[in-house]
Amino acid sequence: MIQSCNYVNRNGRRFVHWSVRLLPVALAVFGRGTFAESVALEPRITAYLETQLKAQHIPGVSVAVLRQGKLLLAKGYGLANVELSVPATESAVFEILSVTKQFTATAIMLLAEQQKLSLDQPVSEFIPDLPKAWSPVTILQLLNHTAGAPDYIHAAGWKENIRLERSPGELLKPVFQLPLEFVPGTKWKYSNSGYFLLGLVIEKVSGESYANFLSQRIFQPLNMTSTKVGNPRDLISNRAAGYIWNGVLLNDEYVSPSQKWAAGAVVSTAADLAKWAQSLENESLLGHASLQAMLAPARLATGENAPYGLGNELDTDHRHRLAGHQGGGIGFNAAFLNYPDDHLAVVVLANLRGANALQLARHIAGFVLPELSDEDKSGIADDPKLTQALAGVLKAAAQGKVDPAVINPDVQAKLIPFLEQTGPRFLGRLGELRSFTLIEEATDAPNRDLRYRAKFDRGTVIWTFKLDAMNRIVSLEPRPE
Question: For the chain, which domains are there?
Fold first, then answer.
């Protein structure tokens, strides 16, 4: 990798000076085109993150950006440990929380490729003491969150005991006393319990501990030397501390890694997750069919698709296919984004509860692919009455009010209560809506998408409205600009 020298100016801001003497080496490592892209990218990302660290009160972030499997940038910003004034680097070790699910799902797929299990097998074949009512649940349904398993983090007493080391069986015991939340395969609901069960399946089938299996079958082959399942007794070099902002910066509370295990206990670095991204691009660990299966949305019994594959949250970003995973929780926030059709991957690791790593990663992706960015979109011709009506929806939602007539009947049961409950909390804190400008329109048959830039007293948000043929709202999604 290119060497760099870190300097601190009079204001205490860090910047990097690239050694001219290493330019020939850099060109050999990156290739001329990739190196030029990297050099152009770094100042924009640096300026953006310096602003966001201050705005979001984030002590430090570590970032990696890859295109076509080539590393464009791997760098840290701010502090990994505030008390010791330790800078964040690409080698700082962060908790990645639910990004862990990428590796749990991969472990299952490795076992499936060896024909040691089938995704359609009932989990009860591997976990005999599973409640009888859970016997229809399959491995596939656990992977894509269509099993209906209640989430253990909502079980009574969990929050009060998060500091304690507890076995998977102890954590799942109160969950097993509950009925499934729906008939397996009929609905989708995110559940950490399902990934605990997958961890038990991995141990049963492989005969190894979950941590050892991931280390020997995933991390070591990919040379991810700083990645492991967290253990409170381990000494981990370059470990970042986790924080919370509550008007002042505070150390966040401790959570035993055993409470997260196969659903969220892996720790890693931006540099190591760049190697993970390269393995997905190069198909060096899993076969093509397995990787494609992990990117396929869950298919419900109703025929609808769910927004999740196998260890992959699925979405679209400006009509570009998007996969990967976000991890948010106590002390940390992480995002691993993979734009498979664009061969683009972005990693953002932050050491603050509530940091919006996903927003940061998407914004950085827009620096690489301009079509993912809204920065240069000044506005297009609109239907003034429709624009006024949609702006009115936001203003009403800020007060917890919704006119059912503007909502598609098929989604009223979910969307209206959601807007009534979350509108005041999200929109209310932004203040008065000052302007509402249409910046993009696209057809998504049988619906169409309208994207607006909404400027409030305290921030700007890009809103995507999906409308039916009668201009009723099917969905709406906010993204801070």
Answer: 1-30 (no CATH), 97-372 (3.40.710.10), 384-480 (3.10.450.590)
